[in-house]
Structure formats: C-alpha cells, structure tokens
Amino acid sequence: MKIDNTLAAVVTGGASGLGRASAKALADAGVKVAVFDISEEAGEAFAAEIGGVFCKVNILDEDSVEAGFAKARAAHGQERLVVHCAVVAGGGKTVSFDKTTGGYKRMATEQIARTAEGVFTATYRVASIAALGMAGTDPVSDDGERGCIIFTSSAASQDGQIGQVAYGGGKGAVNAMVLPMARDLMDLGIRVNAILPGTFATPPMLRVKEMNEAVYEGLGKAVPFPKRLGNPDEFASLVLELTRNTYFNAQCIRLDGGIRMPPK
C-alpha cells in the first residue's frame, strides 16, 4: 500500500507511547492520521501538532469507537490503515499470599474478564469496525488491496511472566486472532498482522526510570542486542514496513532485540 497523502489512517492509543510514534511517522510521510485516545488534552494537542484529527475514544465502549470512526471518516475519508495500540489491562498472580488476612487469595475472575475486554475484545471491536468500512471500497492496488490492520500484541504473549495470566493470556488471544481474521478478510483484500514488542521505552517504563534508574538500566541490559529498551520510533518503522509491503499478511512479528523474558 502506498504511504502518501492519499492514505487515511487510524491509530488507537495515538496520544502516547507506541501509538504516538506510529502516528507521527505516518503523518511525516504525508498520511492523514486520526488519533484515537481517551486522553483528550494530550490527544488534541498531538493531533494538532501532526496535522491530524483527534477522536476521543474509549475502546471499551462500542458506541464510542463507532463515533470515533465516524468523525475520522468525516475528516479524512475511509481509513485504509488501522494501527491498534490502545489497551486496558491489569495484572496479578493466579493465587497469592494476602498479608492483610494472613491467607491466600486468588485473582478475581472480574480482573481476567476486564483485561480480556480491554485487550482481546477491544482489538476485535476496532478491527471489525474498520474492516466493515474498508469492505465497500475500491481496491487501492493491482493486488486488490483494500486495507491493512496492525495489532499491537506483546512478547509477554509468548514469554508470560509471573503475574501476567490476564495480560499475557489476552495478548496470546490477539495473536491467535491474526490468522483466522486474515483468512476471513482475504477475499476483501484486507491484510491483518500483529507486532509483538518486547520492553520499550514507553510511559510505563519511563515511570520505572523515574522511580528506580538501576531497575530501568537492568531491563535494558537484559536485552541480548542492542542492550537497551526499544525506541518507539523502531516500532513505528515496522508499522510503515507492514503497511507498504503487501506480502506481509497473517504474521505475528516479534520486535524485541532477541529478549526471551525470564519467569520474573
């Protein structure tokens, strides 16, 4: 797919971290970008900075997501690219010791359900709404391509650490959705891929640095090569390649410096 000013894109979680880097890289290439985010102030400012449109979207709410796509399409036309970076997740051990009661407790089923909603279900919600819009459009290439959908999964989906039953399980479900969805959409010319980032210098990791720089540095040293955390611009670079290279389809691609996460 050509990356130029004829392309309209939606980036969820676009006001920070991996989403922000992806939105900026696309905008720098001339793409018309709609930034979906729950953070209104940051999202409005960033969208204005890159010449895009901001849509306040709660990925847990179907009506909110539908409204976001409607606003983006009114501004830029039908999106042909969706980069889904937004996530709502939690963590906790399956069974852990509770110092307050002096006994053991299990992670609440509701925590699993909320994370499944914020990771897996929200990914389907965003992708399916986008695909429905793309389905009725004319192809943009000789191959018959109508669109490209990129999920953000995680290395935790394959290397889940202690306390990542909810998050790792949710991202694993995202991985498992890639191939069947790509097959569902193949006759429509819509590609589906996922990026599995390792440890990146996004806001959660930068907060770690503020609290304990030694811990932050240790996270970087755990990466085989290069011995540092990933740069969000490196994630954005892969987004650009997955967009322009039509032969990437139904892939789950690790972007992690070779790290394989230890149990804890």
Automatic annotation (TrEMBL):
Keywords: Oxidoreductase
Entry-linked InterPro entries: NAD(P)-bd_dom_sf, Sc_DH/Rdtase_CS, SDR_fam
SUPFAM superfamilies attached to this UniProt entry: NAD(P)-binding Rossmann-fold domains
Gene3D superfamilies, sorted: NAD(P)-binding Rossmann-like Domain
Pfam families xrefs: adh_short (PF00106)
Protein name: SDR family NAD(P)-dependent oxidoreductase
Organism: Novosphingobium clariflavum
